Model the fold of this input.
Amino acid sequence: MITHNLGYPRIGPKRELKKASESFWEGNISSADLMQAGSVIKKNNWLFQKEAGIDLIPSNDFSFYDHVLDMAVSVGAIPVRFKCLQNYMRNDEAGFYFALARGYQKDGFDITAMEMTKWFDTNYHYIVPEFTRNQKFGFLSRKIVNEFTEAKELGIITKPVLIGPVSFLLMGKAKEESFDTLDLLPELLPVYLDIIYELTAKGARWIQFDEPFLVTDINDRAREMLRIAYEEIGKEFQRLKIMLATYFDGLTENLDTAMALSIDAIHIDLVRAPDQLKTVLEKLPGNMSLSLGLVDGRNIWKNDFTNSLYLIKSAVEAAGADRIMIAPSCSLIHTPVDIDLETDENILPAGIKQWMAFSKQKIDEVVTLRELALSRIADPSDNIKLLFNSENLHSKKSSPLIHSVRVQERLGDILKLEMLSRSDFRTRKMKQRELLKLPVLPSTTIGSFPQTPEVRSWRAKMKKGDISREDYVSLVMKEIGNAIKWQEDAGLDVLVHGEFERNDMVEYFGEMLEGFAFTKNGWIQSYGSRYVKPPVIYGDVNRPRPMTVEWIKYAQSLTNKPVKGMLTGPVTILQWSFVRNDQPLSETCLQIALAIRDEVLDLEKAGIKIIQIDEPALREGLPLKRTDWKDYLDWAVRAFRLTYAGVKDETQIHTHMCYSEFSDIIEQISSLDADVLTIECSRSQMEMLDVFAGYKYPNDIGPGVYDIHSPRIPSEKEIADLLGKAASVIPEDQLWVNPDCGLKTRKWEETKRSIENMIKAVRTVRERYTVPAEK
Ligand code: GLN
Ligand code: ZN
Done:
């Protein structure tokens, strides 16, 4: 029985990688310094895993930006638009690598970065490989081989981790014309063989190929390509051991395909899909080893040894201990580095920390599981580590920190709350029109205004104690005052307070809700040098007191125009946090919904007439397999609707989502029944509105009229054209006018000029519509 790991965090325990790469981008350190910083991280990771007792330690899991980009560069998949730059920067390998990821606007070049998208259902973003129909590949970067040798010099024969050729092609995007990227397999495979050849020549015995697409709905062609790819690799390298890694869900439909591949071991995720173990064991060919993904790589809770040992036992009984491997469920890049760095009781209380494990601890858990499993085979009497583990888990199950009688009682009453339905949309719209008296094409923004370094510095100073809480509040109040005044002058119809008091739209609420904990160093990579520190939902969620009411009330007191109350929705709060694993996600989500509902009702009571409940993460929570969508969407919609249960017809509910793929879920979006929905649209030139028009989406809708992700100022004409386009598919009395998303990442200068152009455009378009109507 051997232990192995699929990938270790590359950011360093204290975010060393971020510091090094950002310094390199600023020109403060050389590429040699940067490489050196990378080597230190790699070395520490390898040596730690070796000392911990991991048998197969990964290499090539390190990356200076992203492992998919690394794979693309390794096989020479450089987008055409970078070709000139590649030549120009031929002596600056690191610089060129980052140019691919971040774009290049210097020395007369103006090249947009490669696109980024989410890594399956995680919050990690990878760089999307770009392929053309006549794509040529070549063994371009030696990173994979170099990392292997680097570890070998430390005395460690690693298991290089590569993205499998089929998943790599499926991850990519066809450019210039549309074609099936799988057509490129015959071109790509020889380069993989070259890389594998070098690795084996240097002494690699195991290679791990990640083929996570095996847990998604793939077609027969993809299955066939998997068969071909691994047959070819197996044939070429008969002494090499090939491990195929799957994670984030079960193999289900693709089980037979996977079992028929010519590979030596398969890794399965038993945290997300424990039920697959039985069928996998039934079908496992006699010459294939099975890697059990037992330690959760996606969450921060300690492993339940008793449960894992039970799974190991059934695997050993069916396949024999020699063919069983123990591992985390997936790469550990999705969990923070080391819980032992959390020493500040005021941030993470010991009572909660005792239940948690980060990557470093998870590696120890993997090794301990093997030790326990082996000792149990020899001697089934209980081991002290096992006793401690069950005691720890037991203390969590029964802890009053986690279970609140009050929250449980409230959950029991949910059905009653859900009956508090509002009138139909038509009726509500009439009442709201009466109350709000908004013009046609009402204009608004999504919520946040620029979080300037100054605003952020106030928060930092208050935390350090350099300014008092009173000083901080009065500074933010002044900022709100300026924002309200500016919005009135600009001529916006529905105003916002600007969210200056918020660090982050989830953290802000988490900090005020019971059941949430935070960490000081619990960073995970989101993309490149951007890391996030998700809150930890450990217990029943409750809102002890209002969270936003005073701020919004103050903003409203400064103007006669309506100010929107701004809240983050329950699905988004859930999605962007580490979640409890002792109850279904749906239940945690309903608890958060109840807390948000308390806030909604308090805002209404305080005289706020419009309340926006943001759900930017609703779509990304969709399960990997379509068969699981309905269940998820059912509870997600239910939770959202619960947040406004019992609200008056006159109170206008807005929601905002920032993505532009609605076709699959338009029905559920519609059943959220928000009075106004603002969405991202400008990048698709309003094309996406066709989905809404086709569906006859009944409620009001605000398609974003300009892209806030870019510093570019949109012209009045551009916006007017887009508005015209929108009005040609959606009746104008349903349309709102707003930017794509919140403006917190923009500068004031850009914001002001953009919004002013937006208002000018609305005015022109409004004339076009109102004049004929009055005749
Ligand atoms: N109200 C939030 C803001 O404006 C919405 C952010 C988001 O959609 N991600 O910042
Ligand atoms: Zn948004």
About this structure: The pocket of zinc ion (ligand 2) is lined by residues 446, 616, 656, 658, 741-742 (CB under 6 Å). Residues 448 and 498 are 4 Å apart (CA to CA). The chain has a mean pLDDT of 95. Residues 748-774 form the longest helix (27 residues).
